[in-house]
Design brief:
The chain has 248 residues and is of the alpha/beta class. The protein contains 7 helices and 7 strands; from the N terminus they run βαββαβαβαβαααβ.
Length: 248
């Protein structure tokens, strides 16, 4: 496979949830492209993770903590790219419960808006070629209903619409706003599902490429949307799903 090369030298990037899974894959890709990368995670310190997070600036962040979100934004001296990747489904607690529903929407949608708003002045001051940008992370549940994920699905659907709204509102600041919508990606969050053969087979039978994705499938798309090659792209949500969303 031909190498995919990006150059984000002297670029400052914040990846929420960059301590694991898709976020870690994105963070590594930006760092490998020369960026100065800030990541967040829910543990107190980077050393609390089993894998190596050296080379990243780490901040502990819980997405239900409004003050923590505001403090993170205020702690940054400059920013060119914001990747709102962090999220969580609460199926284990039952998302049909109204209080759990509200918490899931806060984690997956409201926090995305709050952090984006907090980072807006820094992004507006960016000199990044093609403009500063926000990349939000949606999901296939942005488009399809899942009975066990009413809150997560509603929030991820909201992420798609928020992407459009901010793209229109903040274009005058030179900020592009796009999103990606991954299909079934091999991560810690999806590991329980990956262990259920019947569910996996249903998903793969609908996926033309007949495989699950990996964080390495997602990261280059995010870097493309963040770079000058996408300078005229804003308000879009790009599925990264092996064709799942177009299969009849």
């Amino acid at each position: 496979m031909a190498a995919i090369r990006f150059d984000f030298t002297d670029t400052r990037v914040l990846v929420t949830g960059g301590s694991n899974g898709i976020g870690l894959g994105i963070a590594h890709a930006f760092r490998d492209a020369g960026a100065d990368v800030v990541i967040t995670g829910t543990r107190a310190a980077a050393s609390d993770y089993e894998h190596d997070l050296d080379g990243f600036e780490y901040h502990s962040l819980t997405l239900t903590d409004n003050a923590g979100i505001d403090e993170l934004a205020a702690s940054l001296d400059r920013l060119d790219v914001l990747v709102n990747n962090a999220g969580q489904n609460l199926t284990h607690r039952g998302e049909s419960d109204p209080d759990v529903f509200a918490e899931a929407v806060t984690i997956n949608l409201t926090a995305t808006f709050r952090l984006s708003t907090g980072c807006r002045p820094l992004l507006a001051a960016s000199k990044l070629d093609g403009g500063a940008c926000i990349i939000n992370v949606g999901s296939m549940s942005s488009f399809f209903g899942l009975s066990i994920l009413p809150a997560y699905g509603a929030a991820k659907g909201g992420v798609v619409q928020l992407t459009k709204g901010l793209a229109v509102a903040w274009a005058r600041d030179g900020i592009r706003v796009n999103a990606v919508a991954p299909g079934l990606i091999e991560t810690n969050m999806t590991r329980p599902m990956l262990g259920q053969e019947a569910r996996i087979n249903r998903t793969l039978s609908r996926t033309p490429m007949r495989r699950c994705g990996t964080p390495a499938d997602v990261a280059p798309v995010v870097l493309f949307l963040a770079g000058p090659g996408a300078r005229y792209v804003t308000g879009q949500t790009l599925p990264i799903d092996g064709g799942y969303s177009v299969q009849g």
